[in-house]
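User: Last request for today: this protein with pyridoxal-5'-phosphate, please.
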Amino acid sequence: MNDLHLAPVQPDQPSHLMPVFGRQPISFVRGRGSYLYSDAGVEYLDALTGIAVCGLGHAHPVLAEAIAEQAAALIHTSNLYEVPWQTAAAQKLAAVSGMHEIFFSNSGAEANEGAIKIARKYGNQQGLRCPKIIVADGSFHGRTLATLSATGNKKVQEGFAPLVEGFIRVPFGDVQAIEEAALLHPDIVAILLEPIQGEGGINTAANGFGYLEDVRRICDQHQWLMMLDEIQTGNGRTGQYFAYQHTQIIPDVLTTAKGLGNGFPVGAVMTQARGTGILTAGNHGSTYSGTALGSRIVYTVLDLIEKENAVENAAVIGNYLAESFREQLAEQNVIVRGFGMMIGIELPKECAELVAIARDQHQLLINVTAGNVVRLLPALNMSREQADDLLQRLVPAIKNFLN
Ligand SMILES: *Cc1c(COP(=O)(O)O)cnc(C)c1O
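Assistant: Here's the final one, the structure of the complex with pyridoxal-5'-phosphate:
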């Protein structure tokens, strides 16, 4: 292992980091595909990929080379000039999404901020003084003030009053609640939803993606913007490039991030149809929007997803994993929810301890969300052998835990 990878931490000094994260007592010095290597040299199977970020796995050689080449040529010039890699990345993203206008952000929350601004301006253009956006219970949209206000989780909001106004909350999956809100509030302009709630426990509506079709119909009836947060579900994660592509509908506004940069911080807010033409010169921006380096990374990630058939692989291997968990845990009273490489295993009891058990006893990295849901977000290009490796590590861990 190369010493260059080891950070010169002063062990006798405080970290000086703001204590906002609950960190596990382990660090990694390198990765390869679906595996990570700790500072102690131990190999771990990574079924979380940096929280749905490294969809192509760690240290992808083609991406690493593109990053090195671009970093050596040009990282950033600003949007005062043309940025050809930004255009190339937008053209590729438009082709896979069906969207028309794209703004690159640096994170998921910032992409959602863009979506919220689009909805606000759409309302302001209609002369509404306080345009409202419908959002769902159990949702997660980010940690900035507007996005935490949109988030349906009290813990995320606690201590940050006053929240940003203009959000109306409905139960996720409840079409009637949306129709009732429409009757009560004449100033609704948009709905913002995750097609599958990730942080919320890998949930879809009771009628699955039929909910999205219902929401699309309601948005059209009222001329609202249908805005989908595909920050976690996008970029091949669910076995389609975007989760709405499991249906016939297309949103007016779409946000993504996470898998878009395979670890490089980048996001995007995209529009088509009713969503286009709203943000114009001077309305939005960011110093780092679509840098040459970030855009080359997005272009290369999209190119690799295509060339490696990663979306199709995510569908096939994800389905194999979900089916295998259902079979092998049939006696355990668990509920498996699988959408490509976004898999939730709901246990009959709280299971936060499973994270440490899987890590220390099975060298497997997983996450637990919503208290009792084991969340798996493996690399899209995981092989069948690696999927079997994952099953062999996790199934006994869950069985032992529940016995
Ligand atoms: C992660 C996530 C966000 C926030 O993205 P950041 O890059 O952390 O700001 C927003 N929405 C969803 C659905 C997410 O999964």
